[in-house]
Amino acid sequence: MPTVLRIQGGRPLKGTIEISGAKNSALPLMVASLLTDKPLTLTNVPDLADIRTITQLLEMLGVTAQVEGNIRTLNAAHITSTTAPYDLVKTMRASVLVLGPLVARYGLAKVSLPGGCALGARAVDVHLEGLQAMGATCELEEGYIIARAPKGLHGAHFTMRVVSVGATENLMMAASIAKGQTVLRNVAREPEIIDLANCLNAMGANVQGAGTDTITIEGVPLLNGATHKVIPDRLETGSYAIAALITEGDLTLTNTSLEYLPMVRETLEKAGAIFEDHKDGFRIYRNGPIHGVDVMTEPYPGFATDLQAPFMALMGICEGASMITETIFENRFMHVPELSRMGANIQVHGASAMIRGVKHLSGAPVMATDIRASIGLVLAGLAAHGDTSISRLYHLDRGYENLEAKLQACGAVVERCKIDG
Ligand code: EPZ
Prior knowledge:
Blueprint: E1 3-8, E2 14-18, H1 23-31, E3 40-43, H2 49-61, E4 64-68, E5 71-75, E6 83-84, H3 86-89, H4 99-106, E7 108-112, H5 125-133, E8 137-141, E9 144-148, E10 157-159, H6 165-176, E11 181-185, H7 191-202, E12 207-208, E13 214-218, E14 226-229, H8 234-246, E15 250-254, H9 262-270, E16 274-278, E17 281-285, E18 295-296, H10 308-315, E19 321-325, H11 335-341, E20 345-349, E21 352-356, E22 365-367, H12 371-383, E23 387-391, H13 394-397, H14 403-408, E24 413-418
Parallel strand pairs: 2-15, 3-14, 6-7, 10-11, 18-19, 22-23
Antiparallel strand pairs: 1-23, 1-24, 3-5, 4-5, 7-9, 8-9, 11-13, 12-13, 15-17, 16-17, 19-21, 20-21
Helix pairs in contact: 1-2, 1-7, 4-6, 5-6, 6-7, 8-10, 8-12, 10-12
């Protein structure tokens, strides 16, 4: 029987929400276990579908995984396979991150092409070009990338054609045990990149420059084990910050920091948000209308594409209008027709959406289409007059740990229900 999330809207959220560890940091950190034959222990790991998927993939490769609450210990001392199969990779694009570590350590990796996804083509050409620059050969056979480097990888100077988070992570990990120095230019600057570099260095790597547009790596033969805490999830943080605003509530978010959301803070303040910094997080509320603010998504430290859908939900009830331009993915407006079903006034023109605020949204049955679209619909449902039911919850479960419990603790009436037919 399908399950939907049912929300009774119109209640201001008031209270405290503890933010979980960052999914998009935990994923590459777990893959980094392939670079050593010693145990890697990660703490503050969120319990999400994507984390379970990458654990399953690593175990298929021969990694042992111990799970105790939000602590995961991974050990790649006895790798038994270097193949990441299609039926797993197709469910989560981040699986491609095993390519670099496997070919760097074992000289061979067979990873299914991720295939397109709802967001668009999601190419991996930059990943492959970088590995080829380090001496790997990459062939495409029956939908699989086969990367070979029988003599191991060597350092290289490589400039990325496009700023890519995944390619930066893949190549950083590969270069950490390549022979010699690698200089990567035009790299991603996300906090998750810095977190991965810090973990690799704790494992004995020599990675400098993470957080800037150039990263320099001096290769070492093999990494050691380490214990590393995953940074807070800035996308969960931004989503719940918007939840406070869209419901005219008052939330304190803990185990997080506004430092990970420079442009988002500035944008939400323009929209009417009031922030109060706390030692391990911040308080957010408003005491006036939501103003329309134009936004263009950009690589970090610009406005995160993963907060575009939640922000659009907020702009749906703004006083005035907002133009949102999506520059990272070619098809990241699938939440528009769903928000429109709830009464939002949104016109899409190519890569831009013009939102004209309405007095209030109205509850309706809607469908999630990707992780971040799903949270946008949750936020809209929390603010809407009436009941909203959201289907295809597997998207939501990929990115938001204990969502119902966190919202219920702040006054939301939200529950998961099975529906017939
Ligand atoms: C990461 O995806 C995140 N996923 C995404 O979050 C996020 O939206 C994205 O970065 C952008 O910030 C994880 O970290 C697991 P990219 P990634 O490579 O690495 C093009 C979520 O909701 N490109 O930075 O796959 C690509 O098509 C997810 O948690 C190439 O053309 O994104 C896209 O247009 C969704 N060739 C742009 O670059 C390549 O070889 C940015 O993609 C690689 C990327």
